[in-house]
Specification:
By secondary structure, the protein is an alpha/beta fold. The chain contains 20 helices and 30 strands. The strands form 8 sheets. Strands 1, 5, 6, 7, 8, 9, 22, 27, 28 and 29 form a 10-stranded mixed β-sheet that branches.
Length: about 650
């Protein structure tokens, strides 16, 4: 029986016993992965083209080579050998921006081998009638360096159609790192990225020291999505300079060592080199992280090392202090991009950066100016506001205040009992008055909880759904005639799972739309793996589809999918991903365009050691396919872990 996805709680497959089994060589030849036999090309009338020999290198398990032309030699009839997977009757949006069309997709050997009207038999068939079939989404700004060690799925990104992520952004990475510095590195990631130290110490089998060793570890790990990684500047500096990295400029011997390690990383498969100048990025001692101590001459040398190899992307967290300091940052970044001719990325573009009335438009003008000067410069853009998320089970805006801190250290049931006490409530309301007023400086990383500002109650929402029609705390306060703090207390007593959301930057949807529409911006910056109990950016892809395509109709579905697939694949030089074409990797997502959207976030204690995090799944996604294997069916894991380590185009690691 042919089963349509979405009609049952789990996706239905049908197994065709008639599908013949193939040995390894047959599968490889069928997929075009490896062939050492001469293959005659079908001659057209009058053609004198001779038969050619196809010889492609095989890949190690768990590894993928990139920036190589997709193999299209597999455009053959498959009826003799069959397919591993056949997707029938779907509406194909191929990632190019071209109009959708109805068709089938045949997959074998981890690649797309047939598209159109496919007659071949398959081991498994999915009836995708009524579903969009698109390339898997690519997220280039994540911090999943630690999470990959314990989370096979790659959540929460995996639930939103993401099949590939790039990690180690903004200079923060877990390699290179000496054994004696591991705990300090973990605490730095906690301070900057809100990744719980206890989860990292409990969940990571930290056996590596060098960056190549870290990549080898990631390659061996079972994983359901693909991962690429940068070499992080702060990690590199700490490894070479020790404690001097936090206070001193690099000496010549330091620079020589770092240049050599940048080249080693690129040759071992790093996507590039990442750094940060963001004033919000601080150590556990509230001092600047190592990359912020480096001068621009150091950055010139390190990005220049990639230029010598003609490989690697430079990603940087921008100076967001505004004024002359920020103007100097952007001017200097342009010089790096022009001089090295390496692709450069910064982000996120936001409405709070700079001191101009519309700083985000200034940054778009800057992108155009860089392009005119011959630079390849990308701005990373969110698909919505960057939000702080609060709840009784995670953080509340008042938790660092002494009166609140004492309460919040109690068991949840006791907290609720005391919150119901009138005297305690008066004390907590009075404590709120001592908070600093909110300013126009983005509170990133740990600052969101270690030095909070008084909430903007006109911009703090009691979340009742994901459709952006929630009431503000100020509105509820006026309706009820009570202090805003009491509104928050009352709502949490009524529902201990109540979520509150406060936009930090990019509060205005039309500003976000302007950013997304610029041709030199990339729809990314989920920060997945970071800010695990503070923010939830992992749903940016399903928000793009539900809000900007379906609700606002600001993009066609074809345009939006291109932003999430081909544009990102091109920017990160993922040569055989991002399009649904014959010869490309079979990373696909199947979804209902009328239903797809983020689900409500929840607070879970599923990190190693029982640490908390925010979890947000999605609705309307029927299946996710990674390297030809179904990893998720209606949001549930199949247990398959076909994800690969993606080595950058500068890699010289043998793949055959």
């Amino acid at each position: 029986m042919n089963v349509r996805i979405g009609e049952l709680p789990r996706m239905g497959f049908r197994t065709l016993e008639a599908a013949p089994r193939m040995d390894e060589d047959a599968w490889a030849r069928h997929a075009g992965l490896r062939s050492t036999v001469s293959r005659g090309l079908r001659r057209q009338p009058g053609s004198r083209r001779a038969a050619r020999r196809v010889s492609l290198r095989a890949l190690h398990p768990g590894e993928a080579a990139m920036n190589r032309a997709p193999d299209r030699s597999s455009r053959v009839r498959c009826s003799a050998m069959g397919l591993a997977l056949l997707i029938r009757n779907g509406t194909i949006v191929d990632g190019s921006g071209a109009a959708r069309y109805r068709g089938d997709v045949g997959i074998a050997g981890g690649r797309v081998v047939e598209v159109g009207r496919v007659a071949s038999v398959a081991e498994r068939t999915i009836d995708a009638d009524g579903l969009i079939v698109a390339p898997g989404f690519i997220d280039g700004h994540t911090h999943m360096d630690a999470q990959v060690a314990w989370d096979r799925l790659g959540s929460c990104s995996c639930w939103h159609g993401v099949t590939t992520v790039i990690m180690s952004n903004c200079g923060f990475a877990l390699a290179p790192c000496r054994p004696k510095e591991r705990e300090w590195f973990a605490r730095c990631l906690t301070a900057v990225e809100d990744i719980p130290t206890e989860a990292m110490l409990a969940g990571i089998d930290w056996t590596w020291e060098s960056f190549p060793e870290y990549l080898a570890t990631v390659q061996r790990l079972p994983k359901a999505i693909n991962y690429g990684a940068y070499l992080g500047h702060s990690a590199l500096r700490m490894y070479v300079m020790g404690e001097r990295a936090l206070t001193e400029k690099a000496r010549e011997d330091d620079l020589t060592a770092m240049v050599a390690m940048v080249k080693e990383a690129i040759r071992s498969g790093a996507m590039g080199f990442s750094s940060s100048r963001a004033t919000t990025h601080v150590t556990p001692d509230n001092t600047p992280v190592a990359s912020r101590i480096a001068d621009w001459a150091e950055i010139d040398r390190l990005v220049g090392a990639m230029a010598e190899l003609n490989a690697g992307i430079f990603q940087i967290g921008p100076d967001i202090s505004g004024g002359e300091a920020q103007r100097r940052f952007f001017a200097r970044l342009k010089q790096v991009a022009v001089a090295t001719r390496r692709p450069v990325m910064f982000g996120a573009i936001s409405s709070l950066q700079g001191d101009k009335p519309n700083p985000w438009t200034y940054q778009l003008e800057y992108l155009d100016d860089c392009a005119a000067a011959g630079a390849t410069m990308w701005g990373q853009a969110t698909t919505r506001s960057i939000n702080a998320i609060f709840s009784l089970k995670s953080y509340l805006p008042f938790d660092v205040l002494p009166a609140w801190r004492a309460l919040r250290e109690l068991p949840l049931a006791e907290q609720k009992r005391r919150l119901a006490d009138p005297a305690t409530r008066r004390q907590l309301v009075a404590a709120e008055a001592t908070m600093k007023p909110r300013d126009n400086v983005m509170q990133g990383g740990g600052a969101a909880t270690t030095d909070p500002r008084k909430p903007d109650y006109e911009n703090l929402y009691a979340m009742k759904g994901v459709d952006w029609d929630d009431p503000t705390i100020a509105q509820l306060s006026a309706q009820r005639g009570v202090h805003p703090v009491e509104v928050i207390i009352d709502l949490t007593l009524q529902n201990e799972n109540q979520i509150f959301v406060q936009p930090l930057v990019n509060e205005h949807p039309d500003h976000v739309l302007g950013m997304l529409r610029h041709p030199r911006t990339l729809a990314t910056f989920s920060d997945s793996g970071a800010h695990v109990c503070q923010e939830m950016g992992s749903s940016l892809q399903t928000h793009m589809l539900s809000y900007w395509v379906r609700a606002r109709q600001a993009f066609t579905l074809e345009q939006a999918i291109r932003k999430l697939t081909f544009d990102n694949a091109s920017a990160w030089e993922l040569g055989d991903r991002g399009l649904l074409r014959v010869g490309y990797r079979a990373d696909l997502v199947l979804f209902d365009e009328g239903r797809v959207k983020p689900a409500m976030p929840t607070v879970e204690t599923d990190l190693p050691g029982g640490a908390r995090r925010l979890v947000q799944k999605a609705e309307g996604i029927a299946a996710t396919i990674v390297n030809g294997q179904v990893t998720l069916e209606n949001g549930q894991s199949t247990g398959a872990t076909p994800g690969a380590l993606l080595r950058g185009p500068g890699s010289i690691v043998p793949v055959a």
